[in-house]
Each structure stands twice: as structure tokens, then as C-alpha cells.
Specification:
The chain is mostly helical and 340 residues long. The protein has one domain. The chain is built from 14 helices and six strands. It has helices spanning 15-27, 29-35, 40-65, 72-88, 107-129, 135-153, 180-202, 205-215, 217-222, 227-253, 263-276, 283-299, 305-319, 323-333, and strands at 93-95, 101-102, 164-165, 171-172, 175-176, 255-256. The chain has a two-stranded antiparallel sheet. It has a two-stranded antiparallel ribbon with strand order 3-6. The chain has a two-stranded antiparallel sheet with strand order 4-5. Helix 3 (40-65) runs antiparallel to helix 10 (227-253) and helix 12 (283-299) packs antiparallel against helix 13 (305-319). It is globular. 43% of the residues are buried.
Length: 340
Amino acid sequence: MTTQPVESTLPRWSPWSAIGVTGLLLALIPPIAQALDQPFLIRVFARVIVFAVAAVSLNILLGHAGLISVMHAALVGLGGYAVAILAMHADEALITWPVSLQGTRELLIAGPLAVLVTALASALLGLVALRTRGAYFIMITLAFNQMLYYLFISLDKYGGDEGLQVTAPLRAGGSELSNRTAIYYTCLVALVGTLVVVSRLVRSRFGMVMRAAAGNERRVASVGIAPTRYQLAAMTIAGAFAGLAGVLLVLSQQFVSPADMAWTRSGELIVMVVLGGTVTIWGPVAGAAVFLSLELGLSSLSIHCQLVFGALIILMVMFLRSGLSGLVQKLARHGGPGRG
């Protein structure tokens, strides 16, 4: 039972080099934005980072476990709502039974709680979804996404379909996170940490079993390994990182709404992953950056932008079968950084 190592086709660029370059390029955005007197770029790229974390987490399932999940946006929204609801009840008890839970705007408390909630939700939903395969798995995850979407629409106390605004800045270690640049770099640190953890994960024995099960579950089971357990663990881990993306979403925009949980948003995340490339760790980051940049740029040019945008995405997917990361690898093999 053999599997092709991730990014093995890129001779000299180790995953750590790719992560380092990605982090460095994104770290340059705030000073560039200030030099150009375009502060809105910080907000734009903060959004790119948030969706990059969500796309990287989805790629654990899509690119490595062979599971096409359409409930990822709902998990991102769930993590965001967990932080926003805790912030709304910052001066009172959120629940008193069976345990007492005080609301808080402290991100070091609310963040881990949100990640835990989404990990547990993903695990519970995964227990049901993994009883199916193929198109049935896609349909049941889509159903779960819509269930969570309509659940939060029905919660009038928390804004219903209008969403929930975080009226006061979140805190980290007692200090308010109200500075746009500080928020940006907080999101960037979270992205780099996500890339490091996911990179180590997919290169571990766990990652090898995931990829092997994606290729042939029966062969994996024949050597005494239960693939469903690994797939459930993958869904739980991906759900946890989706929750982290939700935390960053609320931190960066001080707002969350059911629109962030729509199944169309899950579809957009899938497009980001495929556009960037499922083989590399950093591919989904590139996919998120290009997708959101095209969306923003075209929307400012024409009212018919969605038609042009869709056509461009189709052309990219057709001619870049390995995504943007595959294109970079091809260029590297023909005279780029990896040429010896």
C-alpha cells in the first residue's frame, strides 16, 4: 500500500518554505496598504486569511480523506456564532444548568470554546454522515448544513436572518482588539499555525491512512485498519479548524449572520480548494486569495460580474487540472526555484 508524498513533485521547496513564503507575503500587506494609503486592503486580506483557514481545513477532507463535505460553511458559522453569543452575554450567565457558563469577550476563552463546539458538532454529524458514501455523503452533509442554517435563522434573540453584531471589541489577555492591523496579524498567526499543524498531520501515519482510505477503503480494512475511525477523526479535526475560521471571521468583521452558513458558501469553499490545488498544503490559501480577489474586482466593474466570474472559474478549473499550486510546481520544474 503506497501513497504519493504530498508536494513530492516540487524538488527543493519544502512545505516549511512554502508556509514561510506565504506568511511573509501576507505579513507585508499592512505596510504596503499604509504606504499606498489604502487601509481597506487590510480588511480585504483579513477576509482572505479567514477564508484561507476555512479552505485549508476543508482540504483535510476533500484533498486527503476523499470526503466531499458540503456542511463546512455551517461549521464556520457555528464557530462564529459561539463567539458572538458569548460576547453578547459578557456581563451575565449564558446558561446555568447543567453547568454554569458565563459570557465573555475574552478571545482566549471564547475561541477555544468555539473550536470545541464545532469539533463536537462535526464529530456528531460525522457519525451519521459516514454511514453513507459518495453522492449520499454529499447530500447528507448538505442537509446538515441547511439544518444549522435554518436553526440560526429561527433564533430571533440572536438576530435571526439579520445576523448578530458584536457591539464591543473582543479582548485577548485583557487588551481590546480594536486596532485593524493588530486584528490582521492575529488572523495571520492563526493561519500560519493552521498550516503548520495540518502539514504535520497529513505527513504523519494518520495522513497516510487517510490518503490510502481515500484511494481504496477495502484494501485499508484488509490490513486491519478501520478507515471509518480515521475519517471520523479527520472530520472532527477539520471541524475544529472550521470553528477557528469562524472565530477569526467574527474577530475581523465584528459580525456573523446565517448568510455565512449558506450552502452556497460551502460551495465557494470547495471551489477555493480545487482552484488552489488539493495536493499541496498552501494551495487552498492561493485559491482563497484568487477567488476573493476576482470576486471583489469584478463586482466593481459590472453588474453582470457573476457571469464573467463563473466563466473565469470554469476556465481555470479546466486548464489548471492541478490548481494554481500545480502551475507553480510546473514552473518550478522548468527553471523556477527548484531547478538544480
